[in-house]
Every structure is written in C-alpha cells, then in structure tokens.
Amino acid sequence: MMYRVAAGRPLGPHAMPIALAVVAALHWLGFVTDAHATDGDDCTTCTLEGRLAHLGDLIDDDPTRGRLEGRLEDKPWIGQNWATLPVAVQPVDQNLDVSASLQHLGSYEARRTQQKIEEAKGLAPKDLAIPKPVVARPTMLDVWSKVEVTGLESVSGETHRSTVGADYKIARGALVGVSAAVREETSMLASDTRLAAYFAMKPWSPVTFDAKAQWGESHAVTNPGLVTTQNALTARLKGNFSYDGLRLAPVLSVAHGVDEADAISGGVVEKSTVALTPRVSRPMDLKDGTKFEPFLSLKSALDFGTGADSPGHDGVDATRGIGGGVTFAKPNAYSLSVTTGIEQTTSSDKSNVSGKLELKLPLR
Length: 364
Description:
Layout: H1 15-25, H2 48-60, H3 68-72, E1 88-92, E2 95-101, H4 102-123, E3 141-150, E4 159-171, E5 174-185, E6 190-204, E7 207-220, E8 227-239, E9 241-243, E10 246-248, E11 251-260, E12 268-276, E13 279-281, E14 284-285, E15 291-307, E16 315-330, E17 334-345, E18 351-360
Antiparallel strand pairs: 1-2, 2-3, 3-4, 4-5, 5-6, 6-7, 7-8, 8-11, 9-10, 10-13, 11-12, 12-15, 13-15, 14-15, 15-16, 16-17, 17-18
C-alpha cells in the first residue's frame, strides 16, 4: 500500500544538496544491511545457469529507474503531490522507495515561495500588488538518487539498491546520462556494483529509442575470492499508438552481454537476446470517474547463450508468453491492478505462471 507522508517543516535554501546526500547516505548508515547468506553454502552465481540468469538480469535492468519517458517529455520524475517535501518516501506493500532530484527540489522551493506569497496576501492591503510565483521550468541538467528496498519482512529476504545518476538534455526530446548503483540481496549469495551510460530520444511523438551500455561486478559471499564482471549493450525501440480507442505499445529490443570470471568458475559466458513484446489496452472512463483499463500482452524472444567451457549449454532458447490483466484507478483515491501471465521456453518442459495483485491507497 502507498502512504503519502505529510508535509513537514521547511528545510531552508540548502535542502537540495542535503536531501540528495540523505538519500545516498541511507545505504551506508545502516538503513541497508550487508548481503549475507541465509542458509546453505551454494553459490547461485557460480553455476553456468546462474551466471546466464545474472547476465540476463543486467541486460533487463533499468539504470534510469523509470526516468526516461518523463524527462524526454519534460514531465516530473517525482509527482507534484510530493512538492511539499524535498524527497519522496513511498512505501508500497513490502517495498520502500526514497527518491530525490534537483528538478524536484526546484519544485519544492517554488512551492515554498508560493506559500509565502499566499501568506503575504492575507496580511497585505487589498490594493497592494503581490508578485506571482516563478514557475519552475524543466532543467537541462538533473542530478537524482533513489534508494529501493523490496521484500521488507519477507521470509525470502530483502533486496536493497542505491542508485545515483545525472542526465542532460542535449536537445528537445533527446538526452544522455550516467548512473551508478549498488545492489545487495539478503536471500542470495552475491552483491553487485553497476555502472551505466544511457542515451534516449524521441524521433517523433509516439516513438522512443533508447540505448545503454552497462558494466557490473558481482561478489560471491560464500567465496570472497570469486569476482565476476559483466558488460552489456542494449538498444530498444518503443511505440505508443492510439487507434479507435485502443492503445498499442510494441517494444523491440536487441542486447548482447558478456560475463567473465576465472577459469575455475567457468571462464567466459555470453548471451544475446532479441525480443518483441507488443501490448494492447483499452482505456475507459466510468461514470463515477474511475478509470478502467484491461490489457493483453504477448512476448516472443530468442536467447543465444554461450558457455565457453560448457558446450552443452550453447544454442538458441526461444521464449513465448502471454499475459493480461486489468487496472482500476480513481485519481487521488486508489489504484488496483491485477495481472497474470504464462511463459514457456524451449529449454524447459515446465511453464512459468505468474500473477500479481497490487493496491495503492494514498493516506491523507
């Protein structure tokens, strides 16, 4: 569930650097604990299957933490409902996100100025002209940070991630950026450090192209001497079209990654992926103001995995899947989302069935 934090006391003109420092420091001041093994002595990143899965996780990772579309369209990464606070603290179910950015903190300062002007209006004579507040414009350069904790009080353990980054709009509808992240899992036996550079542009309104270059380093807790490094390049083309009340959102992505370790742990592992994931939805507005949106998604992907020292794992692995769900949302009241899906790969006789129920209720 999502709870909105009430406005606190203004922090003054130094809130921007202070808030960014606070968010980045949560990881190092004990809010996020060190990764450790909960049971067993197996190393999930030592096996070839584990390394391929870990490499796939890097390829699928979003180093921007969901910022691209909003930044390209000059929309705030952090919603305006958080403008009363220098940072956004969002608990959802068993997860916790803490976000901050220079652009958001500019909105926070503008909100404080507006409040002071409104207070002055009540004390000033009626014929005295009060200046209008300055509108905070989107900035070309934005520095941001985000701390994410998932699985709080979960039996399977927690995952902690701290990310800092910066991006710059080189033109209207185009930007470049960099980010760095540290991720630890209490239920797994590895910790990751990740660096990324990314580029995104909108050649025309309904189409977005983005590319990213990533580097990662993994440390196995049960074997401190084992360190694997990963490199990945990814390009993606996304569409968002509307036709006769339907919303069509196809995504085509191409990626290649390499995982390197010492010869004892398996040498070099490579993975290439080509995926097409179209999505169709039908947004509708009900009479009481509730937004209702059923959707259907398909997935078709080819994975080319190569283990230099394990030829039996070489080859093509095809994945096909279908999913669907529905979202009910009432602005400023609630959001309920129900999704389910099934995937089948050629390397396994079993199907992977998943489902998710998510309810968000802002606490006023």
